[in-house]
Amino acid sequence: MAVQISEEQVRQAEARAVQAEEERDQAARRLEVNPYSDVAAMEHSEASRTAAQLRANAREVRQTYERQVEEERRRRSRPELEKAAAAEIRAAGREMDGLEKGLVGAVVQAGAALVALLDAGVTYNAGVARHTQALAGAGLDRRGGESGGEETSLGEYLLRVKGREFRRMDPGSVAGWLLRRVAEERLGQFHYLVGALFPAHMTAEDQAEWLVEKVRKGQ
Fold it and tell me: What is the pTM for the complete model shown?
């Protein structure tokens, strides 16, 4: 709970500041009488510093007290203000309830779509690996024919079926590429997601160029 400041405390702080300023002025007069006195100069410097500190403190105390008074006034008038704005409060409650439900529904749908996307990517990759191994096991590599399969020394599966090339890709990068694309379109190119998802964007562009192109064309 915030410390409450009383009007008496404000008066005391301002009185201390006034007294310090009077002492500063007295020290200034002594310095005028003895301009070459180191003691007078030191006393004036110290008195000036003290007066400035106490005046700044009094100002801060006064401002805090005034904010406190204003907040109390607003708090006391709050019931009347809420009563006058009853229609707006009801309208806000109804609309925000509907908007919240819509948002929750959109998040649920997006989550289901994301699960479907990742599952489809995993299934696709499994198909590439399975058919690559099957064709390679049948003695059909990717050299010298329209269909064949090859597993590289790095564990990458390369599949060709009737001239069409297939290889495994990272479903997560594709999901990141899609989110980055939507974020850029709906939230602007300077949204933090656009920059944060750039690595996923580049991976998807490299590993699934055919998929990216089809999505862009709406196929």
Answer: 0.60
User: DSSP letters of 157-210?
Assistant: EEEEETTEEEE---HHHHHHHHHHHHHHHHH-TTSHHHHHTHHHHHHHHHH-HH
Sign of CA dihedral 108, 111, 115, 117: positive
In this structure, what token pair is assigned to residue 150?
């090859």
Quickly count: other Cβ atoms within 10 Å of residue 197's Cβ.
22
The pLDDT score that the predictor gives to residue 59 is: 94
Encoded tokens for 171: 């479903």
**Predicted local confidence at residue 112, as pLDDT:** 97
H/E stretch holding 148 reads strand 148-151
DSSP letters for 34-61: STT-HHHHHHHHHHHHHHHHHHHHHHHH
pLDDT-wise least confident of 41-50, 128-137, 207-216 = 207-216
* SS3 call for 3: coil
Distance of CA 83 to the CA centre of its chain: 36
